[in-house]
From TrEMBL:
Residue ranges, compositional bias (Pro residues): 285-305
Location(s), subcellular: Membrane
Family: Belongs to the EamA transporter family.
Name the record gives this protein: EamA family transporter
SUPFAM superfamilies: Multidrug resistance efflux transporter EmrE (SSF103481)
Keyword Ribonucleoprotein among UniProt keywords: no
Length: 317
């Protein structure tokens, strides 16, 4: 990987890690479901008019939009609004790699190797340590919501694999059009129109900046740059950089939000990152290809015996 591509991969990981701190700040300005709806609305407009027509079937766009946009981000934003710390959220979400492997095994028949199974157990041990740490200092219900968000992310990864979009930016922009109305409807039902209107009326530059960051920087730039890297390098080369996301997430939360990083949280981080590395960076078990049956030579037509030529009779003179 050339130095410019290496720097871009680290930059994307930093952007995605800092995103959790920005979400925490944005939740001080918006109800969680409204904030998530505004995020996808800003990500879709005006980009949807610039990326061209969808390049995959609409059924995949709608499915990923509902699972990733409505379920995953809805649960994440609600969980963080309920008290889940930003740095810990960036860490716990990495368990999506385990959910992805499990769902892919059930839905796609991808049998994990022993190393991957070991990685899943290590990552789950990290989740257990993180739960103990959060249970001592914060609400376990919010922790459970973020774990559920990670499960939805794993399901959306499998759906995206089935969709196999050739252009990840085009796909992500069109996916962003799907969650807007469902999230707005949920916000009106759950959070109430008065709370939503109050948030929009009191909108300031900081609130608007959080929407711009999570929509254009995290979604449009982040997924566009990630797709660019995947087009130029093998996935096994690009994927390890995603392990830097919780590093930037926990660091930025400690720096800007004064979130404490306890010894238990460091232990959970080591287990989770190590387990996810084993789960995602080892090759999938490919079922052996049965040997091809021996080819039977095609029958050849019998060679006719050489014809006997008769010399023409000499004409009498």
């Amino acid at each position: 990987m050339r130095p410019s591509h290496l720097a871009l991969a680290v930059l994307v990981a930093a952007v995605w890690g800092v995103n959790f701190t920005v979400i925490e700040i944005g939740l001080d300005h918006f109800p969680p479901l409204l904030f998530s709806a505004l995020r996808f609305l800003a990500a879709a407009l005006p980009a949807v008019f610039l990326v061209g027509r969808p390049k995959v079937a609409w059924k995949w766009i709608v499915a990923v939009g509902l699972v990733l946009g409505v379920a995953k981000f809805g649960l994440l934003f609600v969980g963080m609004d309920a008290g889940m710390p930003a740095g810990l959220s960036s860490l716990v979400l990495q368990i999506q790699a385990v959910f992805t492997a499990v769902i892919a095994a059930l839905a796609l028949g991808e049998r994990p190797t022993r190393v991957r199974l070991l990685g899943m157990l290590v990552a789950l041990a990290g989740i257990a340590v993180a739960a103990v740490d959060e249970g001592a200092s914060g609400p376990l219900g919010a922790f459970a919501l973020v774990v559920a968000a990670a499960a939805c992310w794993g399901a959306s990864n499998v759906l995206t694999r089935k969709a196999a979009p050739a252009d990840s930016l085009n796909f992500m922009v069109w996916v962003s059009t799907v969650p807007v109305l469902p999230l707005l409807a949920l916000s009106l039902l759950v959070e109430g129109p008065s709370r939503d209107l109050a948030a929009l009326r009191s909108l300031d530059w900081q609130g608007a900046g959080t929407v711009v960051y999570v929509a254009w920087i995290t979604t449009v730039f982040g997924f566009g740059a990630w797709g660019f890297l995947l087009r130029h390098h093998p996935a096994s080369t690009v994927a390890p950089f995603s392990l830097l996301v919780p590093v930037f997430g926990m660091s930025s939360a400690a720096l800007f939000l004064d979130e404490p990083v306890t010894p238990l949280r460091w232990c959970a981080a080591a287990l989770l990152v190590g387990g996810v590395a084993l789960t995602t960076l080892t090759p999938r078990r490919v079922p052996p290809t049965p040997p091809a049956p021996p080819r039977t030579p095609a029958p050849t037509a019998p060679i006719p015996p050489a014809a006997t030529t008769r010399r023409p009779a000499r004409r009498a003179r």
